[in-house]
């Protein structure tokens, strides 16, 4: 064809591929009765009740009135020879006239030759037709896909249990004509062009073929500049090579463009259609289509001289071909509307024939058989016994790794011969009794579905096993082995009633196909086996190979690799990011909000915005704070970038790469409440946007590849910067600082936040080419917060109400997930109906969730029962899933209910009604309660938006804290929001989204934190707190003190609480590392509680809790040691004035022990300090400007966990970054200040660390040497054996020694 002036439309492409095919059964009348005019000789059967074949046309009443077999069993069939290949569109059946014999279900088989039958399939499964309910009524079935064949066979499956098999049949269709060419493997047809070069922008090539060979070239064309197109059979699959590039790439070095089909060497017709427009190609084999785009710059395919069909002949060498030729038949071969075979038949000059090409299809009379059952299938064939030697050969194909191929008992006591597949390897064993005399292993991965030829020969002490024409011999010495052929050869398995010596099968039976069986060099007639005149068999399909490629199409989703056995397929989901039987479920959550809800802290995560949908996961940074959860996506250029020499004719352009597809980013943005990107333009004599009506000097490209001439902080469509909107630009005549065109550095910085334009994918700059003109730009990461779906909820308050959505389309895989809460006894969550199919999820009782689904094989129902009621008005999670492998139902964390899906029968879920959420189409059994976060196959349903226009349903659902309030820890308060909840950590010593992150700091010698009790300070937006009494000067009725510490110094003062009088409470470490709690309640009375279980100045984290309720005191150390004490009624507690952490800096009357501990104060790390509802350390670190807290000395925030792993006395400040993509100070963006003193500082730090280590070492040695003296000091601290289990000290009454009103207590 000549080059086209332009690309045709897609519709032109589609229709042009079919115009040459003429009329088909779907667009003209093709429903003539074909059997009514047949002679009785056209009918044949497996057996006949009367002996000779009986006519069995529809409404036949003569003689026996139809066909009935001699025995009614599953091996019977009725066959018709229609005389020629015809197009069959429908069938009809009756029972046998005047009898109780009829068939209630049957299947169909077709053949061109009366051999090598093919079963009729629909939905890729062997189809079962419904038969008759009596002898006379006619049941008619129109075939979903017409069939072209000469022979048709009816196979009864079930029949009237009160009668026998009986049938009268009719077949409907019309004549079928085609052009056929037969290639013998050494021939081809050459289609020569009228000109030297054929250049086409569009190609349509169609054909049908059948072959027994797995390899061979169907057609080929190439040009001298490198273009080529080749269609080739390779191992039973079709491979298309297509190259439009002038790179001189040849076929031998090019990778295939596409590969389709499987098991195409089955001697059945297969259709091929190739459609190309420019680089876009549709490649279809049978019903499977692959779309791809060719590489290269050109759109035209340039072919020189000719196209060859059937092979690739070598120019100048007649009969020589570059690759293996096609051996088989091709039918209706069209190239761009040209009927190639018709031209060849008419001997037109455009066609040159190489070798012997005939125009009728020669059919090899080969009879395959199928071993169906892995436990009971076998074939018994007789041999010639007592012949010196043995010869057996056959071909097989299978998907199973294991199975018995052949077992025979040899004559003359020469042993048993076993041939089997084990792990995909062929294994031949000859053994006598328990002695193995010979073994051969050969081949690998023979369970690949391809035909493999096997031959066993034993002659004159030599044993040879030949696999695919490669011979192998045993490693053992076989000179003493004498083999005599046996009388019975068992293929595939053993009968149940045989002794071990007659047939051995150490593994399971073979499942697969065999053909071309030879014993003693004689072919075996398998039709005679079928007719019962030769050998015996069980569970075989004779005269067809019913192998099926269960990995075509590949139902493993998201790039999962498919493998298979004879009965099922398996998916390997490794490295896909997905899991499940078909790799359907994402292992990642859909947003940072979900990760936060699970209790995760800030960090890098993968989010999968559409769950089980087609989009892959995306790596983001989740900055999980107390009020917002930010998702940040980094790109490849977030640094400040300098630009020189750009002008409108030669602009500077930078494309941003986010490491993901634009579709992934759009899904993330669309699912968020708010998104933004900070953009900064630093300039010196470099203009940014010009005037609002002028041509911009700089612009950026967004998601739809649109040009946007507005800058951060401005509105879409307004060509301004943030300063222009706020009327604060450097020059009021301009709307951007940079447009003032100053000689000094300035900048325009702001946030782009219009979601429909984000993300920024490219920036273009055109004004840095003038004298002294410089610019630098920075575009920050994409940042989003708020999950629009996770808290999207509705409330149903009438049983008749529901929300409706479009039909749920999920033919092969379906997953449904949501949260619900209710107080109702039952109700339907959702329902979708088809003609027969349906899907339904409901709460069927207070403790039972039911998932029911029907794909046409009858309903399947899964039930999960909860040990506790589910109608408790708490949120519960439900996930239901159906795939081709299994159906499952999950409720909360209860055990999952699963059921395997049948491999046969219907498997497409076909729904056509609306999807009903919260009710049913009948408006009965509606759901009362709340549903939120509804996902169907990863698609998010906006329930709230639909509820706004639906009566009986309200958007939103309050009460999140009732379900999730327990997620707020350590005194955090759950605060209800419309979209979820948050944890208010105001009165907690912890912070973070769940009040679990410790607030800790390193104290140096002399560091002091003083908190003065007074009215509360405003740390939240809600300043009208009702808990002000906590802070006022009152007598505390209770004290709850908690803190954690790490130190290596003794003595140390951890905490000091001063009352309005001279009373105080001190927590300190004594010289020996024991912990003391000292209550001075008056000048005369002091209570000292000592915890002496170990030296607590041991650089490990320790946790202390002191609780006083009235006069009852409890002290707990490290969750192990516990002390209880009741103060006497005379004891009086004073008003609290201040709380001090570390060194006491004011003049207070202290006793000697407290004064010693206060010498250096505290050196180490304090964490999560709390006194009642006050968090003094948190106030000092977070709210120092407004809280009644004073800090003296160095207080450095750090993690105590980090301190544990470091030298306590040499800890530097460690700040946890809230965002790894955080901003830096860019006021002087191009100043590159090198701080040369950093090396000096590093050296000083190293020296300090070394000195500190030495000091600590001396201290530890000193403490060890004087430990015993410390135990006998003036406090008379109590000694405990080192091996005393601390658990024995729990809840003990302590002895108290009274000395001048000082009371000492030991634990």
From TrEMBL:
Q: Does the record bear Cytoplasm in its keywords?
A: no
User: Which CDD domains does the protein's record reference?
Assistant: EGF_CA, FA58C, LamG
User: Where's it mainly located?
Assistant: membrane
Record's superkingdom?
A: Eukaryota
Q: What are the cysteine partners in each disulfide bond? A: 930-957
Where does the record place the Laminin G domain?
Answer: 180-361, 368-545, 792-957, 1014-1200
Output the InterPro entries linked to this UniProt entry: ConA-like_dom_sf (IPR013320), EGF (IPR000742), FA58C (IPR000421), Fibrinogen-like_C (IPR036056), Fibrinogen_a/b/g_C_dom (IPR002181), Galactose-bd-like_sf (IPR008979), Laminin_G (IPR001791), Neurexin-related_CASP (IPR050372)
Indicate what this protein is called per its UniProt record. Answer: Contactin associated protein family member 5
An example GO biological process term is: cell adhesion
Concerning PROSITE patterns, the annotation shows:
EGF_3, FA58C_2, FA58C_3, FIBRINOGEN_C_2, LAM_G_DOMAIN
């Amino acid at each position: 064809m000549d080059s086209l002036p332009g690309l045709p439309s897609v519709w032109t492409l589609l229709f042009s591929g079919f115009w040459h095919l003429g009329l088909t059964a779907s667009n003209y009348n093709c429903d003539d009765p074909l059997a009514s005019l047949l002679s009785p000789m056209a009918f044949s059967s497996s057996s006949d009740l009367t002996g000779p074949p009986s006519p069995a046309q529809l409404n036949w009443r003569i003689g026996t009135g139809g066909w009935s077999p001699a025995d009614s069993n599953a091996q019977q069939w009725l066959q018709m020879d229609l005389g020629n290949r015809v197009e069959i569109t429908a069938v009809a059946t009756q029972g046998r006239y005047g009898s109780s014999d009829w068939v209630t279900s049957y299947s169909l088989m077709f053949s061109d030759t009366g051999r090598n039958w093919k079963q009729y399939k629909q939905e890729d499964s062997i189809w079962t037709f419904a038969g008759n309910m009596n002898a006379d009524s006619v049941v008619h079935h129109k075939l979903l896909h017409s069939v072209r064949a000469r022979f048709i066979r009816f196979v009864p499956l079930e029949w009237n249990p009160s009668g026998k098999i009986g049938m009268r049949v009719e077949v409907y269709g019309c004549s079928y004509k085609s052009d056929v060419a037969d290639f013998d493997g050494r021939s081809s047809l050459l289609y020569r062009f009228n000109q030297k070069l054929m250049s086409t922008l569009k190609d349509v090539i169609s054909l049908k073929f059948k072959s027994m060979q797995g390899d061979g070239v169907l057609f080929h064309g190439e040009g001298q500049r490198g273009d080529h197109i080749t269609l080739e059979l390779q191992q039973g699959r079709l491979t298309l090579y297509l190259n439009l590039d002038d790179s001189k790439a040849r076929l031998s070095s090019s990778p295939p463009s596409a590969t389709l089909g499987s098991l195409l060497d089955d001697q059945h017709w297969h259709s091929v259609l190739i459609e190309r427009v420019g680089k876009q190609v549709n490649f279809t084999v049978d019903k499977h289509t692959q779309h791809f785009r060719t590489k290269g710059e050109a759109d035209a395919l340039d072919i020189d001289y000719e196209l060859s069909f059937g092979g690739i002949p070598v120019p100048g060498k007649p009969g020589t071909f570059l690759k293996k030729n096609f051996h088989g038949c091709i039918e209706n071969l069209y190239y761009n509307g040209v009927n190639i075979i018709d031209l060849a038949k008419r001997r037109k000059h455009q066609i040159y024939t190489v070798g012997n090409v005939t125009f009728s299809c020669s059919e090899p009379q080969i009879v395959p058989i199928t071993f169906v059952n892995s436990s009971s299938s076998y074939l018994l064939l007789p041999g010639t016994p007592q012949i010196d030697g043995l010869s057996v050969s056959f071909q097989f194909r299978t998907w199973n790794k294991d199975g018995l191929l052949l077992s025979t008992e040899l004559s003359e006591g020469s042993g048993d011969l076993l041939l089997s597949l084990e792990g995909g390897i062929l294994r031949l064993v000859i053994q006598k009794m328990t002695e193995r005399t010979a073994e051969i292993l050969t081949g690998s991965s023979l369970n690949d579905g391809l035909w493999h030829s096997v031959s066993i020969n034993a002659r004159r002490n030599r044993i040879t096993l030949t696999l695919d024409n490669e011979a192998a011999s045993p490693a053992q010495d076989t000179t003493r082995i004498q083999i005599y052929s046996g009388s019975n050869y068992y293929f595939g398995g053993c009968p149940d009633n045989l002794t071990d010596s007659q047939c051995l099968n150490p593994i399971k039976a073979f499942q697969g196909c065999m053909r071309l069986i030879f014993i003693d060099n004689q072919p075996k007639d398998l039709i005679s086996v079928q007719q019962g005149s030769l050998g015996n068999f069980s569970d075989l399909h004779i005269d067809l190979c019913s192998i099926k490629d269960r990995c075509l199409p590949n139902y493993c989703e998201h790039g999962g690799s498919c493998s298979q056995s004879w009965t099922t397929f398996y998916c390997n989901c490794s490295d896909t990011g997905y899991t499940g039987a078909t790799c359907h479920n994402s292992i990642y959550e859909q947003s940072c909000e979900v990760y936060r809800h699970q209790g995760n802290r800030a960090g890098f995560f993968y989010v999968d915005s559409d769950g089980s949908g087609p989009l892959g996961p995306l790596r983001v940074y989740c900055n999980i704070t107390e009020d917002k959860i930010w998702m940040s996506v980094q790109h490849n250029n977030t640094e400040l970038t300098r630009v020189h020499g750009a002008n409108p004719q030669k602009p500077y352009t930078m494309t941003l790469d986010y490491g993901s597809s634009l579709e992934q980013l759009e899904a993330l943005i669309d699912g968020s409440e708010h998104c933004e990107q900070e953009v900064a333009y630093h300039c010196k004599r470099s203009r940014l946007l010009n005037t609002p009506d002028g041509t911009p000097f700089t612009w950026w490209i967004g998601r739809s590849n649109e040009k946007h001439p507005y800058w951060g902080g401005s509105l879409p469509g307004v060509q301004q910067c943030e300063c222009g909107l706020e009327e604060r630009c450097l020059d009021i005549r301009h709307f951007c600082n940079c447009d003032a065109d100053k000689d000094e550095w300035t900048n325009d910085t702001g946030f782009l936040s219009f979601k429909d334009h984000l993300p920024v994918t490219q920036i273009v700059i055109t004004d840095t080419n003038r004298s002294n003109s410089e610019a630098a730009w920075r575009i920050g990461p994409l940042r989003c917060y708020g999950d629009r779906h996770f808290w999207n909820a509705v409330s149903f308050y009438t049983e008749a109400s529901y929300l409706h959505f479009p039909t749920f389309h999920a033919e092969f895989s379906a997953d449904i997930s949501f949260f619900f809460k209710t107080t109702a006894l039952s109700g339907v969550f959702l329902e979708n109906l088809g003609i027969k199919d349906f899907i339904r999820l409901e709460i069927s009782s207070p403790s039972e969730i039911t998932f029911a689904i029907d794909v046409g094989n009858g309903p399947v129902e899964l039930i999960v029962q909860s040990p506790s009621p589910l109608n408790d008005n708490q949120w519960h999670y439900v996930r239901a899933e159906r795939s081709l492998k299994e159906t499952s139902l999950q409720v909360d964390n209860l055990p999952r209910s699963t059921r395997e899906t049948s491999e046969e029968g219907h498997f497409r879920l076909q729904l056509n009604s609306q999807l009903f959420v919260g009710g049913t189409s009948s408006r009965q059994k509606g759901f009362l309660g709340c549903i939120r976060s509804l996902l169907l196959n990863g698609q998010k349903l906006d329930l709230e938006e639909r509820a706004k226009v639906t009566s009986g349903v309200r958007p939103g659902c309050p009460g999140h804290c009732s379900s999730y309030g327990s997620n707020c820890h350590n005194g955090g308060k759950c605060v209800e929001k419309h979209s979820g909840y948050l944890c208010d950590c105001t009165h907690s010593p912890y912070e973070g989204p769940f009040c679990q992150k410790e607030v800790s700091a390193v104290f140096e010698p002399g560091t002091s934190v003083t908190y003065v009790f007074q009215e509360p300070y405003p740390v939240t937006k809600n300043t009208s707190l009702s808990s002000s009494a906590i802070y006022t000067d009152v007598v505390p009725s209770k004290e709850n003190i908690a803190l954690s510490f790490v130190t290596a110094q003794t003595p140390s003062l951890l905490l000091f609480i001063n009352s309005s009088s001279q009373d105080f409470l001190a927590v300190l470490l004594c010289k020996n590392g024991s912990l003391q709690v000292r209550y001075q309640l008056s000048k005369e009375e002091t209570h000292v509680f000592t915890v002496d279980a170990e030296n607590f100045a041991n650089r490990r984290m320790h946790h202390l809790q002191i609780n006083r309720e009235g006069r009852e005191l409890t002290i707990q150390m490290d969750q192990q040691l516990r002390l209880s004490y009741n103060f006497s009624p005379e004891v009086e507690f004073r008003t609290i004035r201040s709380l001090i952490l570390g060194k006491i800096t004011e003049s207070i009357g202290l006793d000697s022990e407290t004064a010693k501990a206060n010498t250096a104060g505290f050196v180490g790390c304090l964490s999560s300090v709390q006194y009642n509802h006050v968090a003094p350390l948190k106030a000092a670190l977070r709210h120092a400007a407004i809280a009644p807290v004073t800090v003296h000395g160095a207080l450095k925030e750090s993690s105590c966990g980090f301190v544990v792993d470091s030298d306590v006395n040499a800890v530097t400040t460690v700040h946890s970054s809230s965002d790894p993509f955080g901003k830096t100070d860019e006021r002087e963006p191009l100043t590159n200040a090198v701080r040369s003193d950093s090396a000096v500082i590093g050296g000083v730090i190293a020296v300090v660390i070394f000195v500190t280590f030495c000091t600590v070492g001396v201290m530890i040695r000193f403490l060890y040497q004087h430990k015993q003296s410390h135990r006998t000091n003036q406090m008379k601290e109590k000694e405990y054996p080192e091996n005393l289990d601390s658990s024995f000290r729990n809840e003990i009454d302590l002895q108290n020694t009274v000395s001048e009103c000082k009371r000492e207590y030991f634990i």
